[in-house]
Amino acid sequence: MQNDLFTYTLHLADNNLLMGHRLSEWTGHGPMLEQDIAISNIALDLIGQSRNFYQYAATLRKDSATEDSLAYLRDTREFKNLLIAEIPNGDWAKTIMKLFLFSTWQFYLFQQLINSSDKQLAEIAEKSLKEVTYHVRWSSEWVIRLGDGTEESNKRIKAALEEVWPFTGEMFLPTEYEKSLLNTHVSVNVSDIRNSWNSKVKLVLEEATLEYPENKNTWMNTGGKNGVHTEHLGYMLAEMQFLQRAYPGCEW
Amino acid sequence: MGKRGSAGLCRKEKQKAGGLKTKTMNNNEPLWEVFIRSKQGLDHKHVGSLHAADAQMAIENARDVYTRRMEGVSIWVVESKYVHSSNPDEAASLYDPANDKIYRHPTFYNLPDELKYM
Amino acid sequence: MMATEELRKIFNSKIAEEIRIEPKDWMPEDYRKTLIRQISQHAHSEIVGMLPEANWITRAPTLKRKAILLAKVQDEAGHGLYLYAAAETMGIAREEMVDQLLSGKAKYSSIFNYPTLTWADIGAIGWLVDGAAIMNQVPLCRASYGPYARAMIRICKEESFHQRQGFEILLTLCKGSKEQKEMAQDALNRWWWPSLMMFGPNDDASPHSALSMQWKIKRFSNDELRQKFVDVCREQADILGITIPDEKLVWNEERQHYDFGDINWDEFYNVIKGNGPCNKERLAARVSAHENGEWVREAALAYAEKKNKKQVA
Question: Residue C199, CB half-sphere, CA atoms under 13 Å: how many?
Fold first, then answer.
């Protein structure tokens, strides 16, 4: 039971860390100074949220785990993030689409998580909800801007939607550890938030003059929540964890 | 688009000597003035300016740029060209006292294309 | 309408009385041109300066360091923006300034043409580069041009944590393992002289200084600031327990300052000319960001226009 709570918390932490890490790759390379700042802000929010989750997860262990040992010393198979958090940024359109689909999911998730019987998770969700609300708003507006902007931007965001859509199915498939925590009202039943998510996404895509992938029967990529990742995660971790691995046991 | 819109277009083409690929579209996001009222504040204070395509973007950019460390603030944005000012000291002001623009901003002036480095 | 001579007298007396010059006040054309150059150069430096540090965000060794570094680099973008905004009040568009940077016409602080090779470099940049920048910037909070001074005040408020974070990184390394301490010493060895060069040429070799001082858009001379910097850093290096790579760095009782060695001005001018280790990469990165972002900016404008038309209709 405790183990499931630990894994669940890691899942939430890993989502945020990796999405934040990906967004931070734009810092210094954004399409406009103002957007550079905006996306870095969001990256910072996500990393901050991940720290809250990691710090809580560390307390759930009997050993001397810390936020850093959890983030920097686990290998890919121990990461429990959604795949959408680890896929590469691509162009601005792909990044926006990833962020939009992910943060909309996070919004509905945290909205429920606020009612978790686990006080810590509820608190973190509450703290994060304001930020996530802004992420949804910001990314939705960009989806619309790009969808209803120029011919080129429409082409790109359409391609982005096609590329990222297969990573959305995973968001609504509960894992065993999520299911086991439902009885005690700790976790959120992600299959319950699918409808709200669908409605919101549909609304935004329509305004963006994009086709909602309704009955496309897309094959969904899954596995991240159980530690089976894409090849991208390995490279991300190699970069992220390098110093801690090269100089083990040091303070930074 | 500001008065300088099309003038800027031609000039840009001529400036290709700089080596940059610029397309035949004016990439001038308009300039906006930003006013912030802090949580405990009574008035909106002018904090600076930024570029954005429209008001919604301007407000979001303002939030990201000028209120990063503040919570509970109120943000006003106004396109710079819509801000008018008075000359407190007519005598010492700009050579054109009738000009009520807040800056000597290029989009406020209709400059001939051939004019360089101004 | 007043005669130019009268206007010039009023301008000069404002300068003398420390009354701010505002965008619409009459000013000598040279004053305006010099300010545009100085402010935009400063803005460019902030933007290019993001690059050597941003490349360590994904490799920052702890979550706390990651967050702090991201916040710092983001601050720098913001500072660039404040400064571009200040320059725009003088009659130059952001677009034009960006053009000048990307085409290689405008300069930016040459320090950012050096590579960040280790994590300790991030500490060194915070300690030395931001330290030098602060020394330059604090006096500018009293610059004669209003928008510039106000931008500088805003920047200085945010800058204080930048230097502290850098110093703290180095302090942690110096108190750490043997390899970490060596990393810190190595970073100091490579960043020390370029940091001294940040203050510009010696006073007698500095073309723009005299007029800038007269106009109070420069408050202290290059050499004055550089000396102050050396004095302060020497003592901070002692706290860290690492050695500044200058054998001639020695306390001079008579001057009540530290003497220090000669700067390699050849290197300085070469780097300014474009022969520094990273000049090409830095500029290429900015050009790339700008070009790759073109379709995004166009889309935003197109969308805004569409919305406008709908509202008017």
Answer: 25
Q: Which of A34, A41, A138 sits opposite B50 (nearest CB)?
A: A34
pLDDT along chain C (313 residues), means of 10: 83 92 90 93 95 96 96 94 94 92 90 95 96 91 94 88 92 97 98 95 84 87 95 95 97 96 91 86 93 95 91 74
pTM of the model: 0.89
Q: What is the CA radius of gyration of chain A?
A: 18
Query: C57 — contact with chain A (CB < 8 Å)?
Result: yes
Nearest to A152 among C80, C172, C295 (CB): C295
Of A117, A107, A112, A118, which is closest to residue A49 (Cα–Cα)? A107
**Residue C305: CB atoms within 10 Å:** 14
Gap between the Cα atoms of A39 and A5, Å rounded: 31
Question: Whose CA is closest to C220, among C204, C242, C203?
Answer: C203
Comparing alpha-carbon positions, the chain C residue that sits nearest to B89 is C25
Neighbours of chain A (3+ CB pairs under 8 A): B, C
Decide if the complex's ipTM is over 0.85: yes
Distance between CA atoms of residues A101 and A112, nearest Å:
17
d(CA A78, CA A101) in angstroms, rounded, equals 24
Intra-chain end-to-end CA distance of chain C, in Å: 44
Burial of B42 (0-12, 13-18, 19+ CB in 10 A): exposed
Phi and psi at B41, nearest 5°, equal -80, 165
Q: How close does chain C come to A63, measured CA to CA in Å?
A: 19
Task: Mark which residues 171-190 of C lie under 8 Å from A by CB.
Answer: 172-173, 175-177, 179-180
| C291 touches A: beta carbon within 8 Å | no
Phi, psi at residue C277, to the nearest 5°? -60, -35
